[in-house]
Amino acid sequence: VLLQASGGGLVQAGGSLRLSCAASGFTFDDYAIGWFRQAPGKEREGVSCISGSDGSTYYSDSVKGRFTISSDNAKNTVYLQINSLKPEDTAVYYCAALVMRRSAPMNAATMYLLVYESAYWGQGTLVTVSS
Q1: What would you report as the CA-atom Rg of the chain, rounded to the nearest whole angstrom?
Q2: Scanning 27, 57, 70, 71, which has its CA 20 to 30 A from the CA of 81?
Q3: What DSSP string runs through the chain?
């Protein structure tokens, strides 16, 4: 299993980025895939996750309304569209995958498992938001 995150960069506050997570070695239908971030000196924070089987989604309160997660199962890629960026969004963003029964709910519990129990996560991509 391999996950490769990309798309990070330096952007001004209010700007947008689209992160990509290219996955290989597993079937999306059997996994939940999500994004978490870690800012310097801070704990990991779950951002969003999506069910590989039915496309249901979850967002943390801190990003709801600004971030949109989506997946292209044919390309085995998950995207995170980030709008209205704030300086506090500055962090390394990681994608992670976790085996999940099909149609399992995407919620805070699933997000927690993705952040702390995932066997598979990528190298991260740095997002820096300037004020």
Answers
A1: 13
A2: 27
A3: -EEEEE--EEEETT--EEEEEEEESS-GGGEEEEEEEE-TTS--EEEEEEETTT--EEE-TTTTTTEEEEEETTTTEEEEEE-S--GGG-EEEEEEEEE--TT---SHHHHHHHHHH-SEE---EEEEEE-
The identity of residue 21, as a single letter, is C
Of 88, 92, 102, 75, nearest to 36 by C-alpha is 92
> What is the distance of C-alpha 20 from the center of its chain?
9
Tens digits of residue pLDDT in 44-81:
999 999 999 999 999 999 999 999 999 998 999 999 99
Question: Which residue shows structure tokens 């999506």?
Answer: 50
By residue count, the chain amounts to 131
